[in-house]
Structure formats: structure tokens, C-alpha cells
Write a structure and sequence with these properties.
This protein is mainly α. The chain contains four helices and no strands.
């Protein structure tokens, strides 16, 4: 009788171990699928980021070609942080509001509409500059 009880207990232990092993296998497979989904999502996000970065670089190059900065240039993606800060810090005086420009200009200077257009170009260039710098880091 005791031998029968031991055999039943052994079978029960084997079944319990097999069930536990199956649960662990299922959990591992689920974790693997979740990790693969996260990896795929990260790849898609990377691809979108690269695409956006390329678009920003192209827009920046077009802006620079259309409206070169007086005495300077826009930063490039491969600029070091010190190069970027040296370019931006020296060009802060070039960014002024139209009112400031007109107050400091003499009577022979460009009309207000031309001044505003010039400053909107600087603002667009600055916005692209900030986007590129933010993405670069």
C-alpha cells in the first residue's frame, strides 16, 4: 500500500514539474515575443528619426544655400559641440527683432518689409538649427 502511495506521489510530482516547466516555457516565449516587438518598434523609431534627421539636414542645407549667414555658416551634423557653440554664440547679434533693427538703422536702410523678411529667414534658420542640434545629441 505504501508503495502505491509513493508511486502516486512520484507521478504527481512529475506532472507538477512538467506543468511548471510548461508555464516557464510559455512565459519565456511570451517575453521573447515582447522583446522582439520592442526591438521592432525601436527599429521603426530609429528609421523615422534617421528620416527626420535627413530631412532636417536637407532643409538646413537649402536654407543655407538660399540665405547664407553673413560672416558665418550654419552648423553641420558632424560639428562638435564646441564648433556649434562657437558658431551660435558669435551669431547672436545677428538675430534681432524688426523693431530693434529699424531703430538702429538710418534713413537709407532697407524698408521694414525687407527687414522683416530677413528676420523671418533668420528665425527659420534658427529653428532648423535648434532641431538639428537637439537631434544630434
Amino acid at each position: 500500500m505504501q508503495l502505491l502511495d509513493v508511486e502516486k506521489q512520484a507521478r504527481l510530482d512529475v506532472k507538477t514539474a512538467a506543468d511548471q516547466h510548461q508555464r516557464q516555457t510559455d512565459m519565456a516565449e511570451s517575453a521573447t515575443r515582447a522583446a522582439e516587438a520592442q526591438r521592432d518598434e525601436a527599429r521603426r523609431a530609429r528609421d523615422v528619426a534617421i528620416e527626420s534627421f535627413e530631412e532636417i539636414k536637407q532643409a538646413l542645407a537649402m536654407l543655407e544655400a538660399q540665405h547664407p549667414k553673413p560672416g558665418g555658416r550654419l552648423t553641420r551634423a558632424n560639428d562638435t559641440p564646441s564648433e556649434m557653440s562657437s558658431v551660435t554664440s558669435t551669431d547672436e547679434s545677428a538675430v534681432r527683432t524688426p523693431e530693434v533693427s529699424n531703430r538702429s538703422a538710418d534713413a537709407s536702410s532697407a524698408p521694414l518689409s525687407q527687414s522683416v523678411a530677413s528676420h523671418s529667414t533668420i528665425d527659420a534658420r534658427s529653428a532648423a538649427h535648434v532641431q538639428l542640434a537637439a537631434f544630434h545629441y
